[in-house]
Design a protein that fits this description.
alpha+beta, Butyryl-Coa Dehydrogenase, subunit A, domain 1, Butyryl-CoA Dehydrogenase, subunit A, domain 2, 3 domains, 11 helices, 44% helix
C-alpha cells in the first residue's frame, strides 16, 4: 500500500484499539502487554526492524507516518520504552543471531520488559567509573554491585548490564556488556521516589547474581563500545519521542497552552511562536537523522546534539507554561505539575547537557578535547566512587 493508505489504516486501527480509559488498579501492566501484542500483530511494532527478528521490515517513512498518527492518542507503551528505544536496538546492532532470535520478538510483542543498568551511585555522568563487578566462573559470570536511577526496573524481566570485568586496565577498556535475568535470586529492586512522589526510578542490588556467558553482548572488555551504541540509541529515542509539542497528552505542549492562555496578547503569541519554532526545528532534525540512518549513514555524535536540543526545549517549554498559567500550574492535581517535575530530568538522563556539549564540540565540530588525566591509568589505581 502507498503511504497515504498506510496512514489511513494506522489511524483506523488506533481509533479502534487504543484504550480510552485508565485500567483498573493493578491491571496496568497486564493491559499494556495485551495492547503491545495487538500492536505487533497488526504490524505497528518494530516497523523498521528486520522481519527475521520479529519486525515489519518497512522504512522510516512508514515509521514516521505511524508516529504522526499515534501522537493523537495516549498509547499504553511506556513500560516498553527502554526495550524499544535502547536495549533492543543494541542487541540488534551488537548481539549475535542467537540472541536476536531469543529476545527481540518477545520484546516487540510486549511479552518481556527491559531495563538498562548503567548508572551507579559513584558513576553517573562518568559511566566508565562504574564499580559493579562481573567475575568469570567457568561458563558463567558472577555479579556483585549496585545500579541506580533505573527506569522501569520494577517491571523488567531482563536488563542490559554494563559491569567491570578487568581492573588492571584503564577504565574504558575493562568493562563488558551482559543481559541479566532480573527475576533471578541475587537481584533486588528497590523503588526511589522523585520530587513528585512517584517511583519511576529504582536502585538495584546484585549479590552473587549469575549470568551465562551466552548472555554476554560483544567481546569481553569491549563493553564500552557496546555502551556507546546503547547511549546513541538512547539519545536518539529520547530526542525523537519525548517532549514534542505534537503530543496530545503533554500538558505543556503548544496545543495545550493555546487552550488555557490569552492568545490575544501579542507578547504571549511571540512566546508561543518561539515554542513552535524550537519544536519544529528539533522535529526536522530528528527526521533528517532518521532518513540518514535508513540510508545507512550512521548519525554518530549528532544524536547528542538532538538530545541537547530536546533538553533545552523541554526546559523552555515548562518555564513558559508555568509563567503563562501561573501559580496554579504546580498545584496538586494539575497535570502541568507532572511535566514540570520531569523537565530537570531531561537535562540529566542520557547524559547531562554539559556532556552533550563536550561530545558535540569534540566529535562534531572537531574542537580539541579537554584534559583527561585518568585515560591511561589502570582502573584499580583511580579514586572513584567508593574506591579510595
Amino acid at each position: 500500500m502507498n503511504l497515504d493508505e498506510y496512514r489511513r489504516a494506522a489511524r483506523a486501527w488506533l481509533l479502534e484499539n487504543t484504550p480510552t480509559e485508565d485500567p483498573p488498579e493493578g491491571e496496568a501492566v497486564a493491559r499494556a502487554k495485551q495492547f503491545m501484542a495487538r500492536l505487533h500483530d497488526a504490524g505497528y511494532s518494530g516497523i523498521t526492524w528486520p522481519r527475521q527478528w520479529g519486525g515489519q521490515g518497512l522504512t522510516q517513512a512508514e515509521e514516521r507516518a505511524f508516529a504522526a498518527e499515534a501522537r493523537a492518542f495516549s498509547l499504553p507503551t511506556y513500560i516498553f520504552s527502554i526495550g524499544l528505544g535502547m536495549t533492543g536496538p543494541t542487541i540488534l546492532d551488537r548481539g549475535d543471531d542467537e540472541q536476536r532470535a531469543r529476545w527481540l520478538r518477545p520484546l516487540l510483542r510486549g511479552e518481556e520488559v527491559w531495563c538498562q543498568l548503567f548508572s551507579e551511585p559513584g558513576a553517573g555522568s562518568d559511566v566508565a567509573s562504574l564499580q559493579t563487578r562481573a567475575v568469570r566462573d567457568g561458563d558463567h559470570w558472577v555479579v556483585n554491585g549496585q545500579k541506580v536511577w533505573t527506569t522501569n526496573a520494577q517491571y523488567a524481566d531482563w536488563g542490559l548490564l554494563l559491569a567491570r570485568t578487568d581492573v588492571d586496565v584503564p577504565k574504558h577498556k575493562g568493562m563488558t556488556m551482559f543481559v541479566i535475568d532480573m527475576r533471578q535470586q541475587g537481584v533486588t529492586v528497590k523503588p526511589l521516589k522523585d520530587m513528585s512522589g512517584r517511583s519511576g526510578f529504582n536502585e538495584i542490588f546484585f549479590d552473587d547474581a549469575v549470568i551465562p556467558d551466552t548472555d554476554r553482548v560483544g567481546e569481553v572488555n569491549d563493553g564500552w563500545g557496546v555502551a556507546v551504541t546503547t547511549l546513541l540509541h538512547e539519545r536518539l529515542s529520547i530526542s525523537a519521542g519525548v517532549g514534542m509539542s505534537g503530543q496530545r497528552d503533554n500538558p505543556a505542549s503548544l496545543e495545550a497552552l493555546r487552550k488555557v492562555v490569552d492568545t490575544g496578547d501579542p507578547l504571549v503569541r511571540d512566546e508561543l511562536v518561539e515554542l513552535h519554532i524550537r519544536s519544529r526545528a528539533l522535529a526536522l532534525f530528528n527526521q533528517r537523522l532518521a532518513q540518514e540512518t535508513n540510508a545507512g549513514i550512521f548519525p554518530g555524535a549528532r544524536g547528542s546534539a538532538a538530545k541537547l536540543l530536546l533538553a533545552e526545549l523541554t526546559l523552555f517549554q515548562t518555564d513558559l507554561a508555568t509563567r503563562l498559567v501561573g501559580p496554579e500550574s504546580v498545584v496538586d492535581g494539575n497535570p502541568l505539575g507532572f511535566a514540570v517535575s520531569l523537565a530537570p530530568a531531561m537535562a540529566l538522563g542520557g547524559g547531562t547537557n554539559e556532556i552533550m556539549r563536550n561530545i558535540v564540540g569534540e566529535r562534531v565540530l572537531g574542537l580539541p578535547p579537554g584534559p583527561r588525566v585518568d585515560k591511561t591509568v589502570p582502573f584499580k589505581e583511580l579514586k572513584v566512587g567508593t574506591q579510595t
